Amino acid sequence: MAGILAVIVLAGAACGGGGDEDIGGGVEAGPGARDAPGEAAEDTATGEGGGEAQVLDLQLPPVAARIIKNANLSLEVKDGAFDERFQQATLLAARHGGFVASSRTSGRDRRSGTLVLRVPAADFEAVLGELKGLGTITSESISGEDVTAQFVDLEARLRNWEAQEQVLLGLMAKAQTIQESITVQRTLQDVQLAIEEIRGQLRVLDDQTAMSTVTLVISEPGVGTAPPSDGGLPSVSEAWNLALEGFLAVVATVVVSLGYVLPLVLLGGAALYGYRRLRPRPRPAPML
Q1: What's the pLDDT tens digit per position in 250-264?
Q2: pLDDT of residue 252
Q3: Residue-by-residue DSSP string for 145-207
Q4: Can you tell me whether residue 268 is helix, strand or coil?
Q5: Which of 58, 183, 217, 250 has the fewest C-beta atoms under 10 angstroms from its C-beta?
Q6: HSE-up of residue 127 (Cα within 13 Å, Cβ side)
Q7: Which SS3 state, helix, strand or coil, does residue 227 take?
Q8: Cβ–Cβ contacts within 10 Å for residue 120, how many?
Q9: pLDDT tens across 24-80, in order?
Q10: pTM higher than 0.90, yes or no?
């Protein structure tokens, strides 16, 4: 058992030291390899002037920015134009390679509806500009979240776990006893679970950055036109109207409740009356 624990410790050490090896493609970078990117660096280090060798400025390649883009847009259209504009917005998303994630409509005389569109991030601005042309803008908000750092961190962790997985697979093949195989297998399962979790997070982030989300609200005049509350106290007339509406709502609730309860009360009373009329009365005991 002590032998297999030592093997697992060595696997962790090999994994920790394998990060640089993975980045370098498994080839040790010697003095000649460092000058391989260009002969000019070698000439500079060993030029005719015999000066000191200059240190090469090796930089990592730039990482592409990963941005989650979202937009909320509200439009007002002319009377009777709701269905046409709603359909145009759906076709617009499909024309740019997107799709409708969800949709909802309401109203009869005054129609309104909400579309949640997923469109390619590269076409986000173009789609938003075309949607604005479908009606009069009543509200608009755009947000962006930079998740580049999360991508870099998750990809680095994934490479580390994958390297550890390869080490453990090699140890599994070299295990000589059942106990050694079981011990390595348990560690390997934990590593593979961590790999799947990181891959799942990367898939979610990749979907959110590759496809932007546009929430579009389309309505005809007279739908949802109440101005937003500023948080102040209502006026006397507004308070009176609210009180009257509340009173009428209570009366309506009582009337509806009576409509359900009254028939049950009448049926219960009739059943009780019939039971008392029909049940046999006890005979008086004979006098001795």
Answers
A1: 777 877 777 777 787
A2: 77
A3: EE-HHHHHHHHHHHHHHHHHHHHHHHHHHH--SHHHHHHHHHHHHHHHHHHHHHHHHHHHHHH
A4: helix
A5: 58
A6: 33
A7: coil
A8: 15
A9: 333 333 433 334 344 443 444 444 444 444 444 545 556 678 999 999 999 999 988
A10: no
Any idea where the domains of the chain sit in the sequence? 67-146+210-219
Instruction: Report the mean per-residue pLDDT for the chain.
Output: 76
- Rounded Cα gap, residues 75 and 217, in angstroms: 6
Q: In what order do the strands lie in the sheet with 99-106?
A: 99-106, 112-120, 211-219, 67-76, 136-146
Three-class SS state of 56? coil
270 class by beta-carbon count within 10 Å (0-12 exposed, 13-18 middle, 19+ buried) = exposed
Structure tokens at 203: 């898939």
Q: Cβ(133)–Cβ(106) under 8 Å?
A: no
In CATH terms, 67-146+210-219 corresponds, of 1.10.8, 1.10.3470, 3.30.420, 3.30.70, to 3.30.70
Task: Report the DSSP beta bridge partners of residue 279.
Answer: none
* Phi, psi values for residue 49, rounded to 5°: -70, -15
Copy the structure tokens of residue 277: 């009329």
Amino acid identity for residue 150 in this structure: Q
